[in-house]
Amino acid sequence: MWENKTQSVPQRIVSLTQPHIRPIVRGKAGKPIEFGAKLSVSCVDNYVFLDKISLENFNESCHLKEQVEKYKETFGYYPESVHVDKIYRTRENRNWCKERGIRISGPKLRRPPKNVSEEEKKQAHSDECFRNAIEGKFGQAKRRFSLKSRDDKTP
């Protein structure tokens, strides 16, 4: 680093006991860096499918189309809806889903409306409940299936 005048070293070893683990900058409050695998999953009828796993950082939004197409290949039709994090709700992904008749969860990419119908509120609540179940699966994968690194101090 001194000779090359750089501030970082790609593929650096941060754990002697787990040399394959890399720090992933997440930018979350109280925990800007996480260790362990980064997952991208889909859930169909309470079955969870692991679509992508990586010890390197990656942008999940780039993989939405690939995952939906994989769903269509497996089941023969597009899903009615996809329940995604904010990072997936790009204009490109929204338009792509709209062209295929797929409802994408979450608010639209504009200022929130002042008056929201009861039906829209119920749908938003239902989507959030489904998302909570998915987030729980990430925690389960880390706790139960050893995807948490030994350096990760998360309870």
What strand order characterises the main sheet?
1-2
Radius of gyration: 19 Å
Question: How far apart, in Å, are the first and last alpha carbons?
Answer: 34 Å
* Low-confidence blocks of residues: none
Beta-strand content bin: 15-25%
Biggest sheet features: 2 strands, antiparallel
What coarse outline follows from CA principal-axis ratios? globular
**Mean pLDDT over the residues:** 79
Number of helices: 3
Helical percentage: 25-40%
Structural class: alpha+beta
Q: Total number of β-strand segments?
A: 6
The sequence of SSEs as H and E is: EEEEHEHEH
Ordered list of secondary-structure elements with their pairings:
Blueprint: E1 24-28, E2 31-34, E3 38-44, E4 47-54, H1 64-75, E5 81-82, H2 91-99, E6 103-104, H3 118-144
Parallel strand pairs: 5-6
Antiparallel strand pairs: 1-2, 3-4
Overview of this protein structure:
By secondary structure, this protein is α+β, with helices and mostly antiparallel strands. The protein has helices spanning 64-75, 91-99, 118-144; strands at residues 24-28, 31-34, 38-44, 47-54, 81-82, 103-104. The chain is globular and about 60 Å long. The mean pLDDT is 79.
